[in-house]
Amino acid sequence: MTAYGPSNIGPFRPVTPERLQLGEGARLLPDGTVVLVDILSGRLLRLPSAPGGELVQLARLSQPLGAVAPLALTGDRAGWLAATGLAFAVLDPTGRVLREFPLPHREGGAQRMNDAACDAAGRMWAGTMAYDATPGAGALHLLDVDGTVTTVLDGLTIPNGPVLSPDGRTMYLADSALGTVEAFTVDPDTARLSARRPLFRIDPDEGSPDGMAVDTQGCVWSAIWGAGQVRRYAPDGRLLEIVEVPAAQPSSVCLTGGGLVVTTASFGLADPGPYDGAVLVAPCSAVAPPAAHASAALAGPHA
In angstroms, rounded to a whole number, what is the distance separating the alpha carbons of residues 99 and 71? Predict the structure, then answer.
């Protein structure tokens, strides 16, 4: 049985005084910066480059913004591929929508994109959920590099993740309403999912697995909404570590190589505490690969 060492996590502190409604989607970019979203306000934000700075707003959309991945545009411009509203969208550096890839029509009430991530081929995987969390109304969708959008999994409720192992051959997907995280084998050439299997489950009375990250050892880090925790699991589902977070609703995690960044939410709390909605950071020795780029082909010939 593989032994995994401690991640040497120090105390958390808020990155800035700002408090978010529904912080999510923290991502380490290849240049070392960290971006995140405030889902319901449609804002894309960057962490300050120096201690004591403020969150930098990179874009604000008219639709909820679930997550982004970096995307190369023409020339040396760096844009974004976003999971927003009920579409995948190419954004320019200011957040202007250049191109959209709508999801297939879905029955039921009002829905929105939630979490999303790209794989090494530049495809984006994204989950949708009903605003009222109707059981079974959620799904996992795939935007392929040719612009094709496919619904890959139906019958979910609140999908979070997906995240991929460092070799790209395993995908982890949470259904927060059920308290489950499942693993899937991924064909990196075709994006076909197979061998669906449970990784871990948390009793919903104790909290819900939310946003995740996978470190270079293949361990899964999960923000545990409602429990004020981040948990680290081995690839075989063994619980390795519980990290207490000074906020009730941790929502995503990001490993920078020197720190553990945790977004949190104030949404739904009648009496938020001092750190609810804060972006928190703690010293941490664990390392994770930066976010994968979306395929440049998705930007189109003139983007």
Answer: 13
Please give the Cα distance from 97 to 93 (Å, whole number).
10
Given the residues 175, 210, 215, 276, the one annotated as active site: 210
The β-bridge partners of 43 are: 38, 60
Cα separation, 197 vs 183, in Å, equals 5
Known catalytic residue: 210?
Answer: yes
Q: Dump pLDDT digits (tens) for 241-257.
A: 999 999 999 999 999 99
Give CA–CA dist 86/227, Å, rounded.
29
Please say whether the beta carbons of 80 and 72 come within 8 A: no
Sign of CA dihedral 14, 252, 144, 295: positive
The whole-model pTM stands at 0.95
241 within 8 A of 255, measured Cβ to Cβ: no
Question: What are phi and psi for residue 89, nearest 5 degrees?
Answer: -140, 140
Q: What does the alpha-carbon distance between residue 86 and residue 141 come to, in Å, rounded to a whole number?
A: 11
CB 192 within 8 A of CB 171: no
Q: Is the pLDDT of residue 237 over 70?
A: yes
Residue whose token pair is 């998705």 = 298
Distance (Å, whole) CA 142 – CA 191 = 9
Phi, psi at residue 297, to the nearest 5°? -60, -30
How many angstroms separate the CA atoms of 245 and 236, rounded? 24
